[in-house]
Design a protein that fits this description.
There is one protein chain. The chain is an alpha/beta fold. It has one domain: Metal-dependent hydrolases (TIM Barrel, Alpha-Beta Barrel). About 40% of the residues lie in helices and about 15% in strands. It is built from eleven helices and twelve strands. The strands form three sheets. The protein has a six-stranded parallel beta sheet with strand order 6-7-8-9-10-11, sandwiched between helices. Helix 2 links the parallel strand 4 and strand 5. It is an enzyme of class 3 (hydrolase). Keywords: Hydrolase, Metal-binding. Its EC number is 3.1.1.25. This is Phospho-furanose lactonase.
Length: about 300
């Protein structure tokens, strides 16, 4: 039976509700000094603000070793009524110090992922519900191939979905060639993030043909091809017959981007993106992207 693995336990996909399919409540990286998402009270306020505009669930893509604060997630979920899905996995090498990476390379990375998916994240009892990995800019380096091989092994052992950060939205076909081609992960178990950052309609259709999920996530920055190109990209995919493979997310990565700090934050997805996108593709598809689709993308017949 298919279930979504939240920090409070497994639920039926239909119980997930309106879902931000890619975001962060907590995140820490040496690439973002002084901008850490590391404040529990701010995270609670952000979840409450999301709930107030109709949000019901958040998939946190923060992986192993990046300050995901898994121990705090169950209490936050109970206090706010927002379901939370937690990630295992590993980001690009630049987000870790050399010593931490050396320790991980000395062990079995897939074993770590499987343990966090099935037994729980160490000392917390919280089980992860997805595996987060990352590609590079228009390609895959040795680190990406190592982490994706481990993610594929963990997927085959558990059934867990593999969510992929695409650097500036690039490298989607390289990722799919590796994960779905060489490593045998079914397309519908792969979620590609940041397609909005590289609005190439031909590439989008080629990626969607694999059966993977395409996530449009992150509010616009000036002169970036994000919000202002996203509606036409979604419309093109829907018209090509791929409307049932689409997800929406916010991808809040620094403290100043939280709504409670004056930024767009989690509520922006429902306050602004939802209405803007509905004008382009209709409210019915948008509601499925926010409700039905995340349950299908992250729902697993856990092994």
């Amino acid at each position: 039976m298919t279930r979504v693995r939240t920090v409070l336990g497994d639920i039926r996909p239909a119980e997930l509700g309106v879902c931000d399919a890619h975001d962060h409540l907590f995140l820490r990286s040496p690439r973002l000094p002084g901008q850490e998402l590391d404040d529990v009270r701010a995270a609670r306020a952000e979840l409450a603000a999301f709930r107030a505009v109709g949000g019901a669930a958040v998939v946190q893509w923060t992986p192993y070793g990046m300050g995901r604060r898994a121990a705090d997630l169950p209490a936050l979920s109970r206090a706010t009524g927002v379901g939370i899905v937690c990630a295992t996995g590993l980001h690009q090498a630049a987000h870790y110090d050399a010593e931490s990476l050396a320790q991980l390379r000395g062990g079995r990375l897939a074993g770590l992922f499987v343990s966090e998916l099935t037994e729980g994240i160490r000392t917390t009892g919280v089980r992860a519900g997805l595996i987060k990995v990352a590609g590079g800019f228009h390609g895959l380096d040795a680190h990406a191939r190592w982490t994706m091989a481990a993610a594929a092994e963990a997927h085959h052992a558990t059934g867990a979905p593999v969510a992929v950060h695409l650097e500036l939205g690039t490298g989607a076909l390289d990722v799919l060639d590796l994960l779905c081609g060489e490593l045998g992960v079914p397309g519908d178990r792969v979620v590609l993030g940041h397609l909005n950052r590289f609005p190439d309609p031909v590439l989008h259709r080629q990626a969607a043909a694999s059966g993977c999920w395409l996530a449009f996530d992150g509010p616009s920055r000036a002169h970036h091809a994000t919000d202002w190109r996203m509606p036409e990209a979604v419309r093109a995919l829907a018209e090509a017959g791929f409307g049932d493979r689409l997800l929406l997310g916010g991808d809040t990565v620094v403290a100043g981007a939280r709504s409670v700090a004056g930024g767009p934050g989690l509520p922006y997805l429902l306050r602004r993106v939802r209405q803007r996108l509905a004008e382009a593709v209709g409210a019915e598809l948008v509601e499925r992207m926010l409700g039905e689709h995340p349950g299908r993308a992250f729902g697993v017949g856990w092994r």
